[in-house]
Amino acid sequence: MKPDARELRVAADDMLGQLRPGKVLRDAMDLVLKLVRDDVFREYVAGRVWPVTGVIFAFFLVSTVCSIDVMFRVASGSALWLKVFSLLVGSVVWLGGLLSQTYVFLIWLEERAVQRHRDEQGIRLKLPRGILAYLKYSRALPPWIVIALCVVLPLAIMARRIPLEALLLAALAILAPVVFRNLDS
Length: 185
Prior knowledge:
Blueprint: H1 5-17, H2 21-37, H3 39-46, H4 49-74, H5 80-121, H6 131-138, H7 141-161, H8 163-184
Helix pairs in contact: 1-6, 2-3, 3-5, 4-5, 4-7, 4-8, 5-7, 7-8
């Protein structure tokens, strides 16, 4: 079944609305509050604290290497202001990469916790499928954009010089949640 133009337009408007800074902050705070207040989500994460920490460490490593590479690229000139500016840019890339990857991972963990709880309770709920539904209902568009800018773009630039290392880092960022899912099944 193909979505009609009106549905696509409504979904696009909703996704673009997610990009407002106030909504991004509100959605992030809602996720943190869910982790603190929602028993199902909190117990799910608490029961898997070491594997979750391992995945976040993988994100930390990938973001660190991306930010260091960006800093060296920006500071390639001899001007002092470029070196200072490279620290700022590298910090933004590191923080953006780490937080956005962790945010998307937490959204995914919340979905898994809720689904497991529904399965245990015998609740059957049909959720819309597809990328548009995911981006619309999960509020994941802003962090995916930041991942594209702070992780994917630096890895793509890095791949021109050191392709094997860039490929290994990309594999680490992708496979860490996959390994978590396989261990959690």
